[in-house]
């Protein structure tokens, strides 16, 4: 009988690094976001932003974050299927952390 790990979570870190840890270890992964995930990420990180910032974020997500510099905080952005599957697990200061991630995402776009 094949067993699956009790917890497999897809994060923005996986999308950026193109690597994913599965039951049999780390594997290369294409890192493609779905349209629903792109919309969810844009809603999460584009809320309250100017149109120009939202355009840069949309470009970043359309490019599957290929030019984004990866850092540990990206592991806190959880992705699942559908628009509602995008969430951020905040540390101590949600607004400043979302702003920090937004700045990292748009730095190369």
Please describe the topology of this protein.
Layout: E1 10-11, H1 12-17, E2 19-22, E3 25-28, H2 35-46, H3 51-62, E4 77-79, E5 87-88, H4 94-106
Antiparallel strand pairs: 1-4, 2-3, 4-5
Helix pairs in contact: 2-3
Q: What does the model show?
A:
Helices cover 39% and strands 14% of the residues. The chain contains 4 helices and 5 strands; from the N terminus they run βαββααββα. It has helices at residues 12-17, 35-46, 51-62, 94-106, and strands at 10-11, 19-22, 25-28, 77-79, 87-88. The strands form 2 sheets. The protein has a 3-stranded antiparallel beta sheet. A two-stranded antiparallel sheet has the order 2-3. Helix 2 packs antiparallel against helix 3 (51-62). The mean pLDDT is 88.
In sequence order, what are the helices and strands, one letter per element?
EHEEHHEEH
Number of helices: 4
Secondary structure class reads alpha+beta
Bulk shape: globular
**Strand ordering within the main sheet:** 1-4-5
Uncertain ranges? none
Estimate the helix proportion, in percent.
25-40%
Major sheet details: 3 strands, antiparallel
> How confident is the prediction overall: mean pLDDT?
88
- The fraction of residues in strands falls at 5-15%
Report the span from N to C terminus.
47 Å
Strand tally is 5
Radius of gyration: 14 Å
